[in-house]
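Friendly challenge for the regulars: who can give me the structure tokens for this chain first? No prize, just bragging rights.
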Amino acid sequence: MHEPVLVAESIALLRPRPDGVYLDCTIGLGGHAAALFDAGAGRVIGIDRDQAALAASRERLAAVGDRLVLVHRDFRELDDVLKTLQIETIDGALVDLGVSSMQLDDVARGFSFRQDGPLDMRMDPTTGPTAAALIAETDEQSLADLIFRFGEERHSRRVARAIVRARAEQPITRTTQLAAIVRRAAGGRGWQRIDPATRTFQALRIWVNRELDGLAAFLESAVGRLRPGARLAVIAFHSLEDRIVKQTFRRLAAPAGEPAAAPRVTLVTRKPIVPDEAETHRNPRSRSARLRAVEKLA
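First reply, four minutes later:
Bragging rights claimed.
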């Protein structure tokens, strides 16, 4: 069973009420949503672009009936979702930007190089090109740039060159095939804290799913939908997305450049909340999580 990250901390920040409407913008397998209901939330709108995740959360939360509304959309389409549901304001929202254990552990999804599978990586398998397709058609310079930008891989040029050489001999279509290429190009000698393929796989996943595109605009849109006193909580798992969340929240709390601009939110978390030792021991995938929250001003 997938274990959601920073559950107690997230729910404490959102302070759910029986008459409130809450958004779980990345509902996944329903762990955070279940905790919202347990804490007294009246209704939850669950959004996810992974239909398999929606099916799992629907089954898990069947007992709450029509208090749960599930929507197959990208969370960045929040305004369209709420317009369709005829909802003007919400009483709180949670966004978990991580990849779920279900996605990571499903070999057919191609997110992990721990087992061999098709090089897919799409969070929504019904749309967009796969990682294999993007690798096949992208030039070496662009590959190097995106691996450096999204993976913060210092050997990005070496990795891109190895990928281009390898694909000239045969298509790169499997996860372990790509991982072996990257390890040969980026790996050093001796023990390493993380697998040399990790950063490249992260970069490709972010690229395939456009994970950073529109994130700041979404956060502003979500804040605009909060009623006064309501809160937006975001869990990020790598420095690139956490930096966007931190900078956007700070800008909304202290707008600059316009003398008449008033703050739209107050920072609830001056520093990110991180999992304690017990949680990281129980769930090692939580170790990089960072939780930040803001509260809408009147």
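The longest strand covers residues 226-236. The longest helix spans residues 239-253. Your move, everyone else.
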